[in-house]
Design a protein that fits this description.
Blueprint (H helix, E strand, L loop, with lengths): L7 H6 L2 H12 L3 E2 H12 L3 H17 L3 E3 L4 E4 L10 H30 L2 H13 L6 H6 L1
Antiparallel strand pairs: 1-3, 2-3
């Protein structure tokens, strides 16, 4: 039913947000807060002082109502008229961080392997033999005597 065809008694039973939804549907375009509330005040025959005292609460009610969307041009529109793209940047950043960490780990592994390759097998065997020269086998009696 059109707002203009509704009786004042019927209009008074509706909330400001319900009236806003009807106004936006009838106009088929977005509107700013002041224009919407002026239309509501005209429909409900509210005074200019009512407009001034209630517009802040009206704005708050629009921001909390899930039916409406505040556009970049500071106009309100019905949410069902718009597609909202959800962009999750955190996943991309995490993947980049993980890739970066993996690359660093690979670089460290390569560096370690290169260092290990630089030490010849003969050097390693000689070092092990030197360590074994200092090794002494002691019996339990000798250990208890100390």
């Amino acid at each position: 039913m059109s707002l203009k065809k509704m009786k004042p008694e019927e209009l008074e039973l509706l909330s400001y947000t319900d009236l806003t939804e009807m106004i936006l549907k009838e106009n088929k375009k977005s509107m700013n807060t002041a224009n919407i509330f002026h239309k509501i005040c005209d429909l409900l025959e509210l005074s200019e002082s009512d407009y001034t005292s209630k517009i802040g609460d009206f704005y708050t009610s629009l921001t909390t109502d899930k039916r409406f969307l505040l556009l970049e041009n500071a106009e309100w529109d019905l949410k069902d008229r718009h597609v909202v793209d959800v962009v999750v940047a955190d996943d991309d950043e995490e993947e980049e961080e993980e890739d970066s960490i993996e690359e660093e780990e690979e670089d460290e592994e390569e560096s370690y392997e290169e260092d290990m390759d630089a030490v010849s097998d003969e050097d390693t065997l000689e070092d092990e033999e030197d360590d074994l020269d200092d090794l002494v086998v002691m019996s339990e009696d000798e250990l208890e005597g100390e």
